[in-house]
Each structure stands twice: as structure tokens, then as C-alpha cells.
User: Fold this.
Amino acid sequence: MTAAGTERDRRPRLPLRLRLRLPRPRTLRARLTAGLVVLLAVSCAAVGVAAVVELGGFLTERLDQQLAQVGTRFPASLEHHGRLPDDHDGDEYGDTRRQAPGTFAARLVNGRVTNKALVRPDDLTANLGVRLTGQDGTRLARVPVDGRAHTVDLSALDHYRVLAARGLDGDVLIVGLPLEPVEAAVHRLELVAACVFGLALAAAGVAGAVWVRWSLRPLSRVADTAVRVSELPLASGEVALPARAPESDPRGEVGRVATAFNRMLGHVEDALTKRHASEERLRGFAADASHELRTPVASVRGHAELALLHPGPVPPEVTRALERIAAESSRMGKMVDEMLLLARLDAGRPLERHPVDLTRLVLDAVTDARAAGPGHHWTLELAEEPVTVTGDAHRLQQVLANLLANARSHTPVGTTVTVSLETDDTTDGMTDRTTVRLDVHDDGPGVPADVRPGVFERFTRAEHRRRADATTGGGAGLGLSIVAAVVEAHGGSVGLTSRTGATTFTVRLPGDGGLSTA
Assistant:
């Protein structure tokens, strides 16, 4: 093996699927049309090849019969020392006018061409000056003397069909007719077949595409209905499904698909209706229960605090019990207020719409967090200009307080908590939009992976995993769910990215004052 061959073998070769990557039709309509055209093309190609092969064989057979009829009279006349008797000599070997134009004759002695001639197409006289190469002579010498015609490629005369026979003097007489008429007829058939089949394929492709499109119209309507259903917000709330897909003949495949799809939509609509009714009953119960519990809980807390103010001697055990009653009633009162707030937000209660200085709220919230968690390190990253949004100042302050309380309660002492506030300007078509971004970042242990998907759900608690030195039971797990509900009511979004040593809660609010009322 040469060095060049070794170098070629070492070159990386692309996989076959990459080298022969052809475009594939993606839709069912395109695949059916392409399959129809391919099948028709294969049929046309088979018919065309069969016709060309049959015509070539038929014309070649006719040419062989003509060679048999011509015989060796013309090459036998070349025995007269390369001269042909003229037509008036009466010699049967000299009548070249009986030969077809382009007839070739040659006389071989001991495998060498001694004489040769060609009938001119213009005056039907013999041309003795035909020039043959040594390779042509070798090819003529190899023609078997078996009484059958053979094809020979002569460099000076192109393709010929020749017949060899033994002469009277032991020489070999060869007569041949040109294959050019046969090849011309075959090429003409190939051209005509290519044009006709090409037009037929184009017409069949257009007609097939129209027919397939018409046949798949019911399936297209089913697909359009499915797309509209997929675009509906089915997660919660009342859902109105679009009109059913038009049903076609149930005996066909498309008709069965449409019928089954409409039946499935009916089941889905019934399930969504029952779910919405159940959610409404649950919201009503939560709101009513929260409202009714506020007064008893406040009364219990008031009586406990009043008992603690009694001037007379109280046993330590009683004092401790009263303190626990006051603390737990206070915690219960806070949970009742949070549940009532969530119920009102779920019910679509409109929030206030006023300009809110979000920068001032961040400063106040971080100041309060420093007082509540002096063991943490609190840092601020604010924009140079005050950031203002339109919304409910009290609820936005609650969002900040809950996020900072979450960072303080679920991270160990010494954790650094960074609060950043900035604006992002984006262009949506011809409209410029401003988005306010609030980040609360800490370098604590992070949120466990199994808790992250439902961290904004209600009653989600993971403080025993986030904070190793936690000494209290924490809240009820409603703080982050309130954050998500309030932010969504303001037309914004909230997200979480967390890993060990880096946890960030990101709140995005519309800077142009967009506020949802539903």
C-alpha cells in the first residue's frame, strides 16, 4: 500500500446518512403525494426501459436480416486487387448500387485487412480510401466466422453490425451495416418517452396533490380543532372547548378518527367542568372558613394576652401555657389571613392600581430583614433611578417580605442575601416594553431538587432540609404561594434557580403598569 493510499484511508469519513441526506416530506399530504408520484415514476421508467430495449432489439434484428440478405457479394468484389468492376461489366460482384448507403466491406487474409471499401451515401459508389487504425483491424480480425452478426466499434466509422464469412480463396469476407439509424431511432424514442412521461408525472403530481388534499380535508379539520384545544389554558379555571370537529363517513378511517376525537373532547369537557365546580366549592369553603375563623382566633389570642396581664400570682406552668396559647393563636391568625388572601386572589378580586415606588419598598423590606435577621449579611444592588410600577403597594410589600423571610428562615446564620432591582427594555414588534426584574439571591445550601418543582405550591415546606440549625417549625408553607399569586395578579411571573451555594428567586413585573384583573 502506498503512502498516499494510507493517508486517504486515515481521513475521517462522514456517516452515510449525512452524505446522503435527502429532504423528506413531513406532512401526511406530502408523503402520500410523493409516494404516488414515485410509484408512477417507477412505472413510467419500467415502461420506457422495456420499450427502448424492445425497439433496439427489434431494429437490430431487422438489421441482421438485412445483412443476411446482402451476403458477401460486396466484399467478394474486393478480390479484384482493390478495384471494383463498373456496373456495365456485368460482373455480379461490382453492382454497388444494390448496397445500402454506408455499407462497409473488408477482406482479411491471415488476420490482416488487405482490402476495404465503403458505399458512399451520396452517389452509392465505393470508397476504397477508408482509413482504419490497427486497433480497428484487430477488432475485425476477432469477429467470429459463425454466420451471425456482431457489433464492432470502428474508430473511423462508429458502431457497425458486421457479418463474417469464408471466401473462395480461404480469406475472410466481412460486410457491415451502420447502427446509426437504429441508435437514432432508439434515442428519439428515449427523448419522446422522457418528455411524455415527464409531462404525465407533472400532471399526476398536481392532480394527486389536489386529490389527496381533498381526501384529507376531514382529517385537516380534526387537526385544526386539536390545535385550538392545545392552545387553551387547561391548568385551572373554567374552560370552554371549541366546536367539535366535523364528522364524516364513520365507515372510513378519517371518519372514525373524527368520531373518537369528538367523543374524547366530550369526556374532557365533562371532566374540566366537574373540576372547575370542585375548585369553586373549595375556594368558597376556604374563604368562608378563613373569614369565620378570624374572629375566634383573635378572641383566643386576646383572652390569652389578657390572662398574662393578671396582677395576681400565676403558677409558672399556667404562664407557660398561656404564652403558648398566645403564640399559636397568633400563628393561626396569620395562616388564616394568608388563606383568605389566596382565596380572594383565586376568586379574581381586583387589586389596587396606583404608581408604586418599588425601590422604596425594597429599601424598607431589607431594613426590616436586617432587624429580624442580624446574623445574615444583607446587600443591595439597585438601579441609579427609582423603579416605579403600577400595582398594589401593600401586596407588593408582602411579596418582598415573604421572599426575604424565606431566605432568612431557610438559610443558616452567616448567609449572604443579595437583593437586586433593575429594568430590562425589550422591543416587541413596533412596541417598546419595560420589564422590572427583582432578584433575591443567597449563598445558602440550596433548595432540594425534589422540592423545586412544587416550591410555589401551597403548604410546601422544606425548612428542615434548607437550614441545619433551624429551631422552629417555620411557617405553614403559604409564603411562596402568596408570592406567586400576587405576582401573577400583577401580570408578572416568578421563577427559581437553585444549586448548592446559589439560590435565586426572580420576579418579573411589567414596567408599563400592566395589572391583571382576573
User: Anything to note?
Assistant: The CA atoms of residues 406 and 479 lie 8 Å apart. The mean pLDDT is 78. Residues 253-308 form the longest helix (56 residues).
